[in-house]
Specification:
mainly alpha, DNA-binding, DNA binding, Arc Repressor Mutant, subunit A
């Protein structure tokens, strides 16, 4: 080869810091006695993004678990739709928060103790990026699952009360959309699917 191509070093992939998922709006459950405690729990969950040291992450985890215990103690003996949505949401957040803390601590330790080959891409970094993407997707699924439990319960309760004529008026649709925290299009799709499965 007359003119060999110069070797170009591989660019090190940018390491993405684990971030907390987007959380649902709790206002739809403001009537629940768990509302304030779970709101505080969500605030602690969001604060994990600002933790820049291992000690900061551990402190956030301790505050989160202490707040979760308060939620469990405040659990009413007879839970309505809002209570169940908040309680199950808090429990789901616990496992997500634990995984997020572990990944942040791992990342911070790798930053302190230099790892990988200079100018290259380590296998650990690639696998960590994949793990971060998977964990974020899992967190989003958990949040969607909690919201689905809530709006399904709201709509089924309405169906039970109007079983003889399960066709909400325009005003009832607006009220249901507000209670279930969904759009009118989602509401119409849900009723269409329900009638197809149960009324034919």
């Amino acid at each position: 080869m007359l003119f060999p191509k110069p070797k170009i070093p591989l660019r090190k992939q940018k390491q993405h810091e684990p971030t907390s998922p987007r959380l649902p709006n709790l206002e739809m459950c403001s009537s629940s006695p768990l509302f304030l405690q779970v709101g505080h729990l969500f605030a602690i969950f969001r604060a994990i993004d600002g933790a820049s040291t291992v000690q900061g992450v551990m402190s956030n985890r301790k505050r989160f678990t202490a707040c979760l215990e308060e939620v469990q103690r405040a659990r009413p003996p007879h839970m309505d739709t809002s209570d169940k949505a908040l309680f199950h949401g808090a429990r789901s957040l616990n496992s997500i928060h634990r995984d997020l803390c572990l990944r942040k601590v791992s990342m911070l330790k790798r930053t302190t103790v230099a790892g990988g080959t200079p100018g290259g891409i380590s296998t650990n970094e690639v696998s960590d990026d994949i793990d971060d993407d998977m964990a974020t997707t899992k967190a989003r699924h958990e949040v969607r699952r909690v919201l689905k439990i809530h709006y399904t319960s709201v709509l089924k309760n309405w169906i039970d009360r109007h079983h003889s004529h399960p066709f909400p008026t325009k005003e009832e649709k607006a009220e249901l959309c507000e209670k279930a925290a969904i759009s009118e299009r989602q509401l119409n799709n849900w009723f269409t699917n329900y009638r197809r499965r149960h009324l034919h």
